Amino acid sequence: MTATSMAPVPLATPLAPEVPRRRSARIGRAGPTTYLIALVLIAVCIGPVVYIILGGFRTNAQITADPAGFPGPWEIGNYIEVLKSSIFWRQVGNSVICASFTAIGVVVLGVMASYVLARYEFAGRGAMYSLFAAGLMFPITVAITPLYIMIRGLGLTNSLAGVILPQIAFGLPTTIIILVPFLRAIPKELEEAAAMDGASRLGFFFRMVVQLSIPGVVTTGILAFIASWNSYLLPLFILNNESSYTLPLGVQSFASQYSVDTARVLAFTSLSMIPAVVFFLIFQRRIVGGLTGAVKG
Amino acid sequence: MTTTVPQASLSGTGARVAPAPAGRRRGKGPDWRKRLEIALLTGPAILVFLAFVILPVLMAAYYGFFKWKGFGPPKNFVGLDNYKIILQDSAFHDALLHNGFIVVLSLLIQGPIAVVVALLLNQKMAGRGLIRVLIFVPYVVSEVIVGTGWSLMLQTTGAVNAVLAKVGLPGADWLSDPKVALWSLIMIITWKYIGFAVILFLAGLQSIPEELFEAAAIDGATYWQTQRRITLPLLGPTLRIWAFLSIIGALQLFDLVYIIWGQYVASTAGTSTMATYMVSNGRNAGNYGFGNAVAVVLFLISLVIALVYQRFVLRRDTEGALTERKK
Fold first, then answer.
1. How far apart, in Å, are the Cα atoms of B251 and each of A169, B64, B143?
2. Residues B247/A139, Cβ–Cβ less than 8 Å
3. Which residues of chain A fall below pLDDT 70?
């Protein structure tokens, strides 16, 4: 939207460089204070995470002697032991399955619905959008008790499908809210050109929209993946059998089972956060970009 | 598809000549076809959404009228008894109070800090991208990991007290002292969610047109004048959306409390929330009728707050969000 509205202002561009850089008020230059504050902030944000990772490289004796110290000597036994255990890998597998299918489901259903909401004119469009947007107001907490009864009725307790289906449903509001403005920004001229070339509206959807919307789709897909990877409440209700646990449940049961073996708990915990953090680091630009779109929309 | 070619191209050109009535833009194509496409594309999403989001809420409203252990169809209709018990239960009052406390403090602590941080990070500086990513990391790490990590660090013999001792400050019983525990929770919540606010505000800042800042600079406005007169007012919509998400999230808080304090300790440490009350008195106690009634109460409280907020605060932002047309 912004791109098209800014295009017909050609005068602004040649003038802009004339304004002396140091007077540009939006981009003040960061002074030493800013860097100091930024450093403190980073230390506060990253400190606990680093503590968890480093703690896994220590022994319990080290942790007891000095809870806030550094590893000395470094001890990799905790990590190796966790990596050798089959329980850990089974939980990784379960989490991967849950998160992947959730992300795919959310994206496929979300793109289709958002396309209609963004580009079709029909009675009830506003109502449909509001229906999905209303979902934002109600995180899974409100629905969890009856949802459990329903999943049990469907015979899906202890099965990953019982987690995936509700997660897709609860992922739809965010996805649609991010994707609708995104799809609406695809220029009408493109659609008209496609129509002139003989593409039906559905043909336009499959040939053009799906490809043009890939940045938005990646954003929403990653968000859904991370949300599913981290989700706790739904698996807590649905998965009661240890072999069907996803990682968050695994971390918790591991932490209570080995509560005296702090170092091993820390190792298990840090290994379980790797995929979500790595995914985020790879796609952080897109995630931030997607949020920008949602805010503007 | 091939048969519709002439029609489609005709209507395409037609639309450019007379773009007036919105519904008839592609006009000529038979109406049922458009309806079929709409049904085909939105059907699956609507179906899944209704089945797993809307239906459970309705089910909760139904089951909430029964005393029911969760097996077989509910038969023991008790009317509003469950609701009477909830509203008279001092444990629920405590939980409600804690939720309210968390809502208010989340807004008061995270909001101002995040605005200042976003303004600072919106300047030209080395490593800006890296800083943003690092600030967002706590938000990406799961509640279970945050809960496990912090509960280890906040033990009386944990890292936090050890660090405080090194600096010469007194430690505290962060997790079980009822006077301190709720503040510990607030601290953890702030740590976990402030990155989200910062990223959101940064995104909002970037959508403010550059021309405004240039105009202000030409008029000789100082940096802070510009922020106060231009940036903050234009950041309004973003702030209001963030506040909305923050309020709803705080009302439904469950994971962190349940993981750190467990279902029993939460009430004695003074950190229970409506959601932990719901789970420990509903499913964990085997009283599904009662649990559903708590869900309904939680739902209604969230709904009323959301509607009031949308009516009085968000109205000007969402107005025209969908109806707006390109000029």
1. 21, 20, 16
2. no
3. 1-30, 286-297
The answer to ipTM > 0.90 is no
Distance separating alpha carbons of residues A186 and B147, to the nearest angstrom: 42
Question: Which residues of chain A are within 8 Å of residue B70 when distances are taken between CB atoms?
Answer: 149
Q: A88-296 — its CATH code?
A: 1.10.3720.10
Q: Average pLDDT, stretch B251-268?
A: 82
**pTM recorded for the entire structure:** 0.80
Give the Cβ contact number of residue A136 at 10 Å: 18
Asked whether the beta carbons of residue B57 and residue A146 sit closer than 8 angstroms, the reply is yes
- What are the tens digits of pLDDT across the range A170-212? 989 888 888 887 777 777 777 777 777 777 777 777 777 777 7
Q: Does domain B81-146+189-314 have CATH number 1.10.1740.10?
A: no
Asked if residues A106 and A175 have their Cβ atoms less than 8 Å apart, the reply is yes
Residues 201-220 of A with CB under 8 A from B: 201-203, 205
3-state secondary structure of B27: coil
Instruction: Write the CA distances from B10 to A187, A193, B6, integer angstroms.
Output: 19, 12, 6
- Interatomic CA distance for residues A243 and A236, integer angstroms: 13
Task: Give the mean model confidence (pLDDT) for residues B244-252.
Answer: 89
Of A128, A291, A121, nearest to A220 (Cα)? A291
Residue contact B252–A142, C-beta within 8 A: yes
Domain ranges of chain A: 30-75, 88-296
Contact list in B for residue A131 (CB cut-off 8 A) is 46, 49
